[in-house]
Amino acid sequence: MIKIKKKTSSNATNRKFLQEVAMEELTTTFERYDSSGKGLSTSQAEQMREKYGRNEIAKNEHNTKAHFLFEAFMTPFTVVLLILATLSLFTNYILVPASDKDLSTVIIMITMVLISGLTSFIQNVKTNDAVQSLLKMVSVTTNIRRDGKDQELATSEVVPGDIVNLAAGDMVPADMKLIKSKDLFCSSSSLNGESNPVEKIAGQKPDKNQLNEYIDYPNVVYEGTTIVSGSGTGIVFATGSQTVFGKLARQISQTKIKQTSFDTGIKDISKLLITMTAVIAPLVFLINGLTKGNWLDALIFAIATAVGLTPEMLPVIVTSNLVKGSVEMSKHGTIVKKMNSIQNFGSADILCTDKTGTLTQDKVVLERHYDLNMVEKPKVLELSYLNSFYQTGMKDLIDKAVIDAAENELDTKKIKQDYEKIDEIPFDFKRRRMSVVVQNKAGEHLLVTKGAAEEMLEASDFVEFNGQRLPLTKEQEEKVLSNINDMNNDGLRVILLGYKKNPAPVGEFSVKDESELTIVGFLAFLDPPKETAKEALHHLKEDGITVKILTGDNAAVTRAVGKQVGLDVSKIYSGNDLEGKTDAELSKMIEESDIFVKLSPELKTRIIEILKKDGHTVGYMGDGINDSPAMKAADVSISVDTAVDIAKESADIILLHKDLRILENGVRIGRKIFGNTMKYIKITLSSNFGNILSILVASSFLPFLPMLPLQLLILDLLYGTSCLAIPFDSMDAEYLSQPRTWSTKKLPKFMFYFGPTSSVFDIITFALLYFVICPSVAGGGFTSLSLAGKAIFIAVFHTGWFIESLWTQEMVIHALRDRKLPLIKQHATAPVMLATFGAAVIGSYLPYSRVATSLKFGSMPGTFIEIVVGLLILYILLTSLVKRLYLRKEKFLI
């Protein structure tokens, strides 16, 4: 059995408890969890998991089936429907005589709520399941010592008492006390906002001045922080919501999904429609009450009208689009981690990305290892090998290239025998260099530093020529920079290598020791462009996406690569050019250039924030520790499955391969999802607006209600159900070729153009029915008929408008889905054709079916269908004309 001395479930984020763990001996910490240096057994881990739960931050209540069910039925539209159903229950059943009690209207409304709610619930569950199954492909893992051996397990499997191994690039999976560490530097920016990494040292307890600053405890690392360099091993003392990060997450609600511009747009649409309903329904009630005199019937009809104005399928359409899109994107190597980011992915008009691995092959080769005479010397390669091999930070492509070259050309086994590592000073993006301290057999210390040219020269006082150590002069500095520039122009990335003999005593090495260095030579690397990069960039440009390169590399190398892949390299800005500029100055510089070099993570983030402020939708593609802040700032963040943990955690979308062609496919799918959602919104808004006008006109002039409330509800049910096929529709190539920014500004204009178009034919139908068809069936004009005759007249009128209105509503989907002539020069996909024509045929059959009497439909003459066909042809022609007029002033239809 596991012996727990102190319950950490309530104390893990308690300052006193943290002090206790940091100050106590390791043996005491091991005893707390019945653990040891060998870690826990599987059975022990299971017991701990039962006690403390899975290692998940504030278990997301939004991902439970109960929450999905609540969310599905508590949309603004279903709430409106439920309120209207309750009102209808009183007006049709509770407050009327027994002979007039009728629940059919209530039943139809509840049916609509159930169809919308249950479909949305099923889609939400499918969405969650799809995301979870896809994320298993890129799940973040942790190296845990379980059952006496080190193994990679999912981070969620970590429990208190586990022994966890940490390496550069890892996100710390839980709050841990260090057992051992080696040059371990950790960034705690997620907790305190400080970007500079600090060294963590096992066995070094906090001093009295540090006790209240638990983030700075040298022997404790916290969940959510990032290992920048070095390695370490620790024992877990808090997981999930019990950690410092878990408490912070609850306080600032980090578990909530960030709102995209599309989410905001959907909310704006909901408010608009509910406002319209709140205005129009009372107006319909007043008009019918005043003109007909029957206020109860007027109220019931107004309720049915309000239902007709409610696009109850909107949440279902949005969710269905997202699920379908995420599955399709996964087939093209794109995993959608956060569903609500898909629309931003499709509407992005700027893509910011690093150069390495995106435009280049991600296969860096050390081409030259020159001394300062531009002659290849083994000593230069040997020193660079010591630096790259012994550093414990993220071994990037440059380090791997150095190690590969040294293993091919030198006796690396002997080098490792001759030198042992003493310490290191990790890389950061301000110094732009990193150092390793080694000791030879004679006990002499040697600090070996490599880094960017300007930063290396800044820290150097000497140069080595022909084995002689000479002072670094201005002329020599210019010659070094000239040689680097020549190699840069050949497309080679160059860094400088330097050394310093016998620096500070052991254990006291710091950034201050990177001074008075001796420059010994150049390391020149080749990272050739991808064969597919030029083509992919060309296609992205055709798709309306501007690619901006944000890199830490220098201008010459970036220019050489940029030329080869077809980028505009006429204007390049460096980090120094951007420093100290105002937002207005930066905005101008960012708009006129697509290449930015020698950037810090802070500058990358600022560029993205300026672009967003200027109205762009910005995507950022990154895979390193330094990319995380920029990814969080972007509208949509993109990473790859080979990225470091922090990048994958920050990403909205993950590519299975670092290839811009995959990105292009994903963008087009995102635009298709965006387009189909907008299609439903615009078409439904115009259709509903047309119905409003028709109802207002008919209510004002007819001596009876233009349609029975129950018939109006069935009409809305048939139309709403057919719209469920819209996510399976296609978008034309022209639509997919340009980004679309979400905006509600154009919606009123769209409504005012196309809503009245359908109303024109409704009014023509009213006239034909009232003056021609109904009199021929009922045997005379309305005012001259008996009560029985008037009942026949009204029933025929209701039936005629029901059939015509249903066909025009279904036809509007085909008429407005594309700018071209519907059904001839453009047509919907088979599911949409089947759903729309199927719903119209079913609706047209109802007046001739067994339920016709209960629905109070009248018998229509056979010629009426021919009249409807004629009206539809005219409707299509008029809509096509209005489309041409609309598109004279507007660029897009949908």
Write out key terms for the chains shown.
894 residues; alpha/beta; 8-stranded mixed β-sheet; 15% strand
Helix content: 40-55%
Helix count equals: 31
End-to-end Cα distance: 65 Å
Secondary-structure class: alpha/beta
Report the major sheet: 8 strands, mixed
Average residue-wise pLDDT: 85
Give the amount of beta strand, in percent: 15-25%
Number of strands: 23
Oligomer: single chain
What is the radius of gyration computed over CA atoms, rounded to a whole number of angstroms? 35 Å
Low-confidence stretches: 1-13, 252-257
**Overall outline:** elongated
Strand order of the largest sheet: 8-23-22-21-9-18-20-19
Write the layout of secondary structure elements.
Blueprint: H1 15-23, H2 26-32, H3 42-52, H4 65-73, H5 76-94, H6 104-135, E1 141-146, E2 149-154, E3 163-167, E4 175-187, H7 189-192, E5 198-200, E6 220-221, E7 226-238, H8 244-252, H9 261-292, H10 295-309, H11 314-331, E8 334-336, H12 342-347, E9 350-353, E10 365-371, H13 378-390, H14 397-409, H15 412-418, E11 419-425, E12 433-440, E13 445-451, H16 453-458, E14 460-465, E15 468-471, H17 474-489, E16 492-501, E17 517-526, H18 533-542, E18 546-550, H19 555-564, E19 572-574, H20 575-578, H21 583-592, E20 595-597, H22 601-613, E21 618-621, H23 628-633, E22 636-640, H24 645-650, E23 653-655, H25 660-701, H26 709-722, H27 733-736, H28 747-778, H29 787-816, H30 830-845, H31 863-889
Parallel strand pairs: 9-18, 9-21, 14-17, 18-20, 19-20, 21-22, 22-23
Antiparallel strand pairs: 1-2, 1-3, 3-7, 4-5, 4-6, 4-7, 8-23, 10-17, 11-12, 12-13, 13-16, 14-15, 16-17
Helix pairs in contact: 4-6, 5-6, 5-10, 6-11, 6-26, 9-10, 9-25, 10-26, 11-25, 13-14, 17-19, 25-28, 25-29, 26-29, 26-30, 28-29, 28-31, 29-30, 29-31
